[in-house]
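Figure 3 (text version): structure tokens given as input.
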């Protein structure tokens, strides 16, 4: 334990050493992937007979093979693919690996042409055609392992937050929510006029921002996050950075903007002043013909694919109690237009009549109502809900244009009546069968968190994000996390 400037004790547990070995681990994974893919390319070239040549592939690669691997690794290093700050989050790591791999492939081809080296074209195509996605999958596996360990409390960085209490609490709420980032908050530093012992969210105040260098050493912080109100001037922050340069402490400046995707943020230094440019929200792009064409093609294909499952589910619902097969509920769509949302009926026929009683029993206070072990759910309804099969009829809503494959959850008109000016923004795009709320926990999320994710989707829409959500939906459905 160590004492801070205000007498508070701070645990001096050392940071995880494995974080320093992340670049070496990534290098080892890349090397193994390249060697394996190289062997696969040699066998594939020989067995498949691509671009037959009189030169033996094995003979020509006895020298060229190791040089290609070394050159590829060198290009990855030159493009910054092994810098410690690219691991764990964001798309920068994958972009660097992809671009470096394309450059390595191009330089290999040009180099062989210039020195007139007879490199097998079949090997070249297989090596780089399979190698690039294999490297990306390897990095994705490393990231999944890293984030999983951080969620379990390991491989974390000790972080010190500096700034006004309100800004500190705002940043802390994000770090606590996104545990996969791996930040462990050890304390806060506030301006000298603030004499509080802790912030409103319970973060201990270890001292004031003037002592940031000394307290960073005492608390053994790996990272210092400078939020609003942390320094009085840019010169003061620059001096702090100079003083910390020998301590191997990472300095992060947090702008006063949240829930904005990296695609909309551009940093452009002007005269030594880093200006942050934020592009307008992209919700209008989500209403264009490209997304609608994707919805029509995708929903049509899925209706054909799931036709046997749809018929089996309909038979089971009908055979259980002879009631209606579908549950039609009025929901609110884009721009406030109401539509009949289709689902397989998973509850008893008089489920709506019992709703008021369940509201009273559960202490319902507003928003989306869901409860575990709902007594109104039928026997076939349990497995339909567990795998989200009950929502498959919404494919017809998508094909008809009421909904989209990906988007915010379609709200009830009674929910929309209670929306504030911020929440109403979620109606600017078509509601979706799946969305960020579903792949992030579904019913395990609070109402506030679900709305936050919906608004993030609306403001930061992209087709790439839609494809990512669709891919993650499969994992969320099969794990049944939050499905009840």
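Below: residues designed for each position.
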């Amino acid at each position: 334990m160590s004492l801070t400037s205000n007498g508070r004790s701070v645990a001096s547990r050392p940071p995880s050493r494995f974080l320093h070995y992340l670049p070496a681990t990534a290098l080892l994974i890349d090397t193994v992937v390249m060697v394996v893919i190289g062997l696969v390319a040699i066998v594939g070239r020989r067995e498949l007979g691509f671009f037959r040549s009189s030169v033996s592939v094995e003979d020509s690669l006895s020298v060229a093979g190791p040089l290609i691997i070394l050159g590829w690794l060198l290009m990855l290093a030159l493009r910054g693919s092994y810098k410690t700050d690219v691991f764990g989050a964001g798309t920068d790591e994958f972009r660097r690996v992809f671009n470096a791999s394309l450059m390595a492939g191009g330089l290999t081809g040009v180099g062989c042409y210039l020195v007139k080296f007879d490199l097998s074209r079949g090997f070249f195509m297989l090596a780089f055609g399979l190698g690039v996605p294999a490297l990306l999958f390897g990095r994705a596996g490393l990231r999944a392992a890293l984030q999983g360990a951080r969620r379990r409390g390991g491989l974390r960085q000790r972080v010190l937050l500096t700034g006004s209490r309100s800004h500190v609490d705002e940043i802390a709420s994000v770090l606590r929510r996104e545990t996969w980032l791996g930040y462990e908050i050890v304390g806060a530093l506030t301006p000298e006029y603030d004499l509080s012992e802790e912030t409103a969210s319970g973060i201990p105040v270890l001292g004031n921002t003037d002592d940031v260098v000394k307290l960073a050493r005492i608390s053994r912080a790996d990272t210092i996050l400078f939020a609003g109100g942390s320094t009085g001037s840019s010169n003061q922050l620059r001096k702090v950075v100079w003083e910390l340069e020998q301590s191997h402490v990472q300095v992060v400046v947090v702008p006063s903007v949240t829930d904005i995707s990296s695609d909309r943020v551009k940093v452009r230094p002007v005269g030594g002043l880093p200006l942050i440019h934020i592009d307008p929200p992209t919700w209008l792009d989500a209403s264009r013909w490209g997304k609608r064409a994707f919805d029509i093609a995708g929903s049509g294909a899925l209706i054909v694919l799931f036709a046997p499952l749809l018929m089996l589910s309909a038979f089971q619902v009908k055979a259980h109690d002879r009631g209606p097969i579908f549950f039609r509920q009025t929901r609110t769509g884009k721009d406030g237009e109401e539509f009949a949302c289709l689902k397989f009926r998973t509850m008893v026929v008089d489920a709506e009549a019992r709703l008021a009683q369940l509201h009273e029993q559960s202490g319902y206070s507003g928003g989306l109502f869901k409860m575990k072990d709902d007594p109104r759910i039928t026997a076939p309804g349990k497995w339909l809900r567990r795998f989200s099969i009950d929502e498959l009829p919404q494919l017809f809503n998508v094909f008809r244009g009421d909904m989209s494959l990906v988007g915010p959850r379609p709200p009830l008109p009674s929910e929309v009546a209670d929306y504030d000016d911020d929440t109403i923004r979620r109606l600017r795009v078509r509601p979706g069968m799946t969305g960020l709320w579903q792949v992030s926990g579904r019913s395990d999320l609070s109402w506030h968190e679900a709305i936050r994710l919906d608004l993030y989707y609306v403001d930061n829409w992209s087709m790439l994000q839609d494809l990512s959500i669709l891919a993650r939906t499969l994992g969320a459905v099969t794990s049944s996390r939050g499905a009840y």
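The radius of gyration is 28 Å.
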